[in-house]
Amino acid sequence: MALDPVQLATFQAVIEHGSFDAAARALHVTPSAVSQRIKALEQVVGQVLVRRARPCTPTAAGEPLVRLGGQVALLEHEALNAARGTLGGRQARTRVAVVVNADSLAGWFLPVLTALPDVDFDLHTDDEGHTAELLRAGTVMAAVTTEQVAVQGCRVLPLGAMRYLAVATPARHATWFAGRDPAAAFATAPMIRFNRKDTLQHRFVRMVTHRDVDPPTHFVPASASFTEAIRLGLGWGLVPEGVARADLAAGRLVDLTVGHHLDVPLHWQYWRLESTALSGLTAAVRAAAATALR
């Protein structure tokens, strides 16, 4: 049985806007109409598709339909623009949802978006090890991720590696690390992490010392503030090489383990569609990554 396109679009609106009422406002129908369409779609599929919570989220059965709804909407939008273009009509702007890790967004990724001036971007950010989850759920159309195995229905391209250096202020280095065994120093020196998903610091320490540590930890969930917290002496942390370079040259920060670094391979995953917007974005991402990443 074919899916009803109106029901599918309504389902996508509920997930995108987070509630039946918000979807109703976006679609210019009553909440009752939205509820009826969702129930009808669930009857066709034979599964509950929406978790009725705040916000509404797709169930495991609903996630493939989120992707399908987004893909249909994108292709319909581009086809309509192409048809209007043949008659010189005004074209509507395309919206593309992308998830990027915070360090890439703060560094090399944001200028990529200027290559597509006719596209509106809906940017999400998450730890690079978790960004593919939004792609898998259908929330976004493309992702910068560490996951090298293609999500179902997606293509994957290697971008290169983002190099991180372990840094602290000269004063904190003298207090916490100078003349000490690295394992003992890392076990007690305050660590800065982006959030609880951020395991880079622990991975680096394990690589250098072959030990696991549980030091005092500060959580600073913004890339610029993360680096500033290190400059202020709050703790040590891993900073992208490109960000750390100026501070190291100026003597504001020091490399805690000269000769050691952590390279994080990044990949670009995107929906396997013949989409003008996604193709243009992919080309711009690859060009920028070739310059910014190792």
UniProtKB/TrEMBL annotation:
Keywords: Activator, DNA-binding, Transcription, Transcription regulation. Gene3D superfamilies: 3.40.190.290, Winged helix-like DNA-binding domain superfamily/Winged helix DNA-binding domain. Residues 3-59 form the HTH lysR-type domain. Signal peptide: none annotated. One of its GO terms (molecular function) is DNA binding. PANTHER family: HTH-TYPE TRANSCRIPTIONAL REGULATOR ARGP (PTHR30579:SF2), TRANSCRIPTIONAL REGULATOR (PTHR30579). This is ArgP/LysG family DNA-binding transcriptional regulator.
